[in-house]
Specification:
Elements lengths: L2 H14 L6 H11 L9 H15 L6 E6 L2 E6 L4 H8 L9 H13 L2 E2 H8 L4 H9 L3 E6 L8 E5 L1 H7 L10 H4 L17 H10 L3 H5 L5 E4 L5 E4 L10 H29 L3
Antiparallel strand pairs: 1-2, 3-5, 4-5, 6-7
Helix pairs in contact: 1-3, 2-3, 5-7
Amino acid sequence: MELSEIIPHIEVLIFASDKPLTSLDIVELINNSFGFLEERISLDQVETAVEGIREKYAAEFYPFEVRESGGGWQFLTKKDYHKTIAQLNGDKFLKRLSNAALETLAIIGYKQPITKGEIEAIRGVNSDYSIQKLLEKELILISGRNEQLPGKPLVYATSKTFMDYFGINSAADLPKIKEVLAEQIVEGTIIKPEDFTDNQIADAMAALPTDDEIIEGDVSDLTVNEEGELIIAELNESSDIVSASEVASTDESTDATEDDSDNLSNDVEDENNPQ
């Protein structure tokens, strides 16, 4: 059978299926359908035909496309028509998972296979209800038991429904944590000594203010311009910084006051204790 004759049959199989169809599923279905043929359809032929179907519906003329999602091929409407379809389906698109369920689902997605105890250790709270709801929605499944832990607890993993719901084909397609948090991560600037010459370092050190200059209020801020030059901003006359001379005079007056106080106390003791 010619490839052009196979393509319509593959299209109708993908369209009529209520679940994603893999290329192997299509091979089996086509061969069962044309069992009278002496030559069986190969996997390569099906994959070539599917690629041709994808290119066909990728055109702007069609509001839907053939995509690999949930581990198999599906007819899906293009995202440009989401709002229109939402009007038809109503509340179906308004249902959302709770924050607790989303947290639990994310942990299972990235840490699977994982036990309930391990999930609760990460979340810090009991997760019985969230796990039960995710099982009911068939977003996760019980994949077995952990034979290494006491009691051999159940192990949870994501399901094909989960992959179909999020439009991925396996857990490996989930975005990396670093990619998700990329905008929130602030990386420090690494300064390598080899990037600067001895002269540049010496000039920068020479431009730094001395301790006396800082005390006297000659500088208030240090900045670096686009050329890498150190800029020293001067304070206004209204600065509240006390100069070194004022500090010295204040210290002297404090000392003098303390001396007067000592002398006064000595005089009082002399009057109270005449010899």
